[in-house]
UniProtKB/TrEMBL annotation, chain A:
This is ABC transporter ATP-binding protein. PANTHER family: ABC TRANSPORTER, ATP-BINDING PROTEIN. Pfam families: ABC_tran. It comes from Rhizocola hellebori. Keywords: ATP-binding, Nucleotide-binding, Transport. Belongs to the ABC transporter superfamily.
TrEMBL record, chain B:
The chain crosses the membrane at residues 12-30, 67-92, 113-139, 159-179, 186-204, 296-314. This is Transporter. The lineage of its organism: Bacteria, Bacillati, Actinomycetota, Actinomycetes, Micromonosporales. It comes from Rhizocola hellebori. The keyword Transmembrane helix applies. Keywords: Membrane, Transmembrane, Transmembrane helix.
Amino acid sequence: MTGNEQALATEGLGKRYGKKWALRGCTLALPAGKVIALVGPNGAGKTTLLRMAVGLVAPTVGTVEVFGQSPTENSPQALSRVGFLAQDHPLYRHFTVADLLRFGRSCNVRFDEGLALKRLSQLDIPLNRRAGALSGGQQAQVALALALAKRPDLLVLDEPLASLDPLARLEFQQTLMGAVAADGVTVLFSSHVVHELKQVCDHLVVLNHGHVAVQGDIDDLLGQHRLLTGPRVETGPRKSGSVIEANHADRHSTLLVRDGRTALLPGWQEQPVALEELVLAYLRRGIDQEATV
Amino acid sequence: MTWLIWRQHRAEALALVVLIAAIGAALVIVGQPMHDLFPNGASRCVPPTTDRACIVGLATLQQSYDFAAPMLALLNFVPLAIGAFLGAPLLARELELGTWQLAWTQAVPRMRWLAAKLVALAGLTVALGAAFTGAVAWFRQPLDLFGRFDITGFDLSGIVPMAYGLFAFAIAALAGALLRRSLPAYATAIVVFVTVRIAVATWLRPQFRAPITLTQEIPPGSRELRLAAKPLDWNLGEGFADASGKHFSELSSTIWEHKATDAGIDPATYLHEHGILRWITYHPADRLAGFQLIESTLYVGLAALLLALLVWRVKRRAL
């Protein structure tokens, strides 16, 4: 896997259900070997994008490629390269854990059952227990073990933490990060929780109202954006493309700008922006402004 | 895939095997005394017969086993049960629990997944239907002497029940894909299946071929006023007609019959003198196999159409 390879590339991707566009005009280039967070409010089109990335849903318009292959074609080769963990980590509830492993073996060309067994025994998950009888955290771990046993190049997870309690959440993250460190798998996961992202991921895509609001390496994004505070000005995102968000108080204004490193006017101060603030600023912007970016 | 299909559907498959086995056992227990009435085999007693033992057997069968055919008619639900039970969960259960996302992101392309499931479960539907129709065919051997165009002789014999099973399977599978839940899929399958079955059996089936209508004068002195169908024919209706051949209603026919018997002279002669004709409309017995083939083709065709819709829906990923 070369450093510049793209794990997921989309071009003008859109999906319409009936008359409503779940996702529209989505153009992305996600680097391989990274942990990528897809952030956005509920209904932003995250699930639709992820399902198209793994070939579960066909695009209405545009193209999607995973490591240069179209998942829409649904070929065994393309399917083998991708692991998917759907929201609420669905499993066949009446299958035992051993049955689920056999399912993985019988439906995959390459399936590293030893790896899955190792992970499950580390977590003390009994093989003869029915999936439906496991705790939510254990079910998520089994689903993750199944997905990782495919030895995928891209692992896609839809809201993996949403239904887990804090302890299970932590354990799940540890397992996931352990796998990333060990296998170098590219991870794309969606979340509507913004905090804690910085510790786990290094690339960010913000999705809002079916459009990509902003994307990039987190370090780059934080470097490009800054908060400026100075005397009150009559500017805002509508007047200047580089102003992402403006807050005006009586005497002064606070601007979130994306301008690289231009010199400051007298009377203005700058400070770095936190990741959470950055994401929220983009989510607060209306659709009409996103279109102008 | 084979293991997965077995693991996912073994509960339904085993339940159906038990059901068919129980029905088969019950049919043997009830049916053996009927067979005992014809020690030389029922097939040698096709009416009209002059064989003494056959006549006794037929009379006993008619008197003591009049419950057998209505009892058998209750089993008309079996092809529906087989098909719906195997078809409904096929997609509905995956959609209900979200596991379609698990199943279709393994290395088996979903069209192959669907094809394997359809072949295995439709095949099982046919196999169970064959076992069922075999048991019914044995049970009905004596009853076949009274004709085979009735609701058990036609609808539960030969390849027809297997075609019904496939039809039920296809409705249930498609309903499951559209409604995304098993229980409403079963309910839909029952309603659609029963509606189509009744419509075809009562309205379409008699028209598979043009029935034969026989109209004749009533011979003076004849003891039978009306025409009777031959034992194995399918009688669609009979009665009287006026001299031009126009059929009377059943009520008018009955009134004429009463007038004739009350007239004080030979009733047949009375009707003959009044220019009354008698008629009968029927399908001859030898049309049975052809009719069963037409009916089966119709249902298999419907099933194929519904399954094609299902495949198209899964293929274009609208789920």
